[in-house]
Amino acid sequence: MTEVIDFINGLLWGSVLVYLLIGTGLYFTIKLGFIQFRHFTHMFSVLAGSRKSSNEGVSSFQALCTSLAARVGTGNLAGVAVAITAGGPGAVFWMWLIAVIGMATSFAESSLAQLFKTKDADGNFRGGPAYYMEKGLGRRWMGVVFSICLIVAFGLVFNAVQSDAIANSMHNAFGFDKTIVGIVLVVFTSVIIFGGLRVIGAFAEIVVPFMALAYILIAFVVVAMNISELPAVFELIIKSAFGLDEAAGGALGVAMMQGIKRGLFSNEAGMGSAPNAAASAAPFPNHPASQGYVQMLGVFIDTIVICTATASIILLSDLGDTSGVGGIELTQHALSSHVGDWGGTFVAIAILFFAFTSIVANYSYAETSILFLNRDSKVMVWIFRAAVLGMVMFGAIAKSDLIWNMADASMGLMALVNIIAILMLSKYVMIVAKDYNKQLAAGKTPTFDSAEFPEIDKKINSEIWNSKFKK
Q1: How many domains is the chain built from?
Q2: What is the span of the domain harbouring residue 322?
Q3: Transmembrane segments in this chain: where (predicted)?
């Protein structure tokens, strides 16, 4: 099994995805007129009104928090440490790069998710890559392939990664037995995931902003304590990223691959996961592109802000020999070296909240895919919930290296299918973005009317976007 996983990872990350992710990000960046730079402040303007919701779905802010709950987790605290350990400080630069250009990719996939969303039997909005593959491309088989990849990646493997990080951090900080930690996680996870999509959104809305702000504040304190060393750290990152540092000579490819892999795992831009949360929102303003802006901001917060906070904590520390130390343990040791022993405890608590919210958000993504495969099967959902809880337990007691390799393979397959789809649907992204910006420039609050675009109207749920049905 290990050999098969290694072969898949080598093929995807060595030959295909590195170029496809960067190329797709650059394509949408250029086609959308460098939207992540030109409309940077507008992302915050849209977010300001995003707490408004209706009984048809979660608010845009809750959708952002749900996507951040999945994004902000092990990848931000343990994944950054893994990238630095394996690829050197230069990996951080490639994480930044894939995030900046990935913001445009995120805009594209999240706008498409809103455009092609539908309603389930309970009146909740559902959507995401599987739905825009079926409705936009007319290729249900492609949506089925993507759904299976997402169910394996997010519902099963990624949740094992999150519980692995929680169990390790709790063991390192408090000496807790990993099996006991796993059992407790299973109990609390079951309480949330059996509560439904809106419970997940409400839970994420409370927990994620609080823990993210607390973690960022601690990182700012660490940076302030070591402000004189910051220029040297940035110089080290840049030199290492391009193989210019003597210690990193010949390691350019490793730094790039590690930075892009860990960056994708963290911010998920182009992977096709966040669009599932984006589709669940009743957006404000009432336009598909609004959720594109909100989710674009999510990529920025995740990687440029939170991952950089972790990288600063690690690279500004003076740990000496860290051989044999990696992942969450390295982050704990690094913060403890700055603020004392309580730093390791704080990281353990942070990863507990971050990774736990990732587990429940990951589940919500996978549930959407389950319902895409069989819209009327409640039994399948219940069986899947049991499988999720089993993987949470497995992750708490399994070997970390195997879990991370499985995560790389599953997210690589997901991203490959999704990127092909959004490139094929790029004309719809441009139509939506142009319509939004035209109304914005005219001083209007953008509102999408699919009746003005017959080519789109015949492929989507007209009751959601056609003015004839909304009156």
Answers
A1: 1
A2: 43-443
A3: 12-30, 77-104, 141-160, 180-200, 206-227, 296-316, 345-366, 378-397, 409-430
Amino acid type, 239: K
Cα–Cα distance between 113 and 6 in angstroms, integer?
32
Residue 3 has pLDDT above 70, yes or no: yes
In a domain? residue 163: yes
- From CA 21, how far away is CA 104, in angstroms rounded? 11
* CA-CA-CA-CA dihedral for 363, 276, 371, 204, to nearest 10: 40
| Mean local confidence (pLDDT), 287-292 | 90
Q: Is 97 contained in some domain?
A: yes
331-365 pLDDT, tens digit per residue, is 888 888 888 888 888 888 887 887 888 888 788 88
Average pLDDT, the chain: 82
d(CA 148, CA 151): 5
Give the domain CATH number at 276.
1.20.1740.10
408-447 in b/e form (b: 16+ CB < 10 A) is bbbbbbbbbbbbbbbbebbebbebbbebbbebbeeeeebe
Establish if 126 belongs to a structural domain: yes
Average pLDDT over residues 357-380: 81
Q: Is 315 part of any domain?
A: yes
Burial 269-287 (b: 16+ CB within 10 A, else e): bbbbbbbbbbbbbbbbbeb
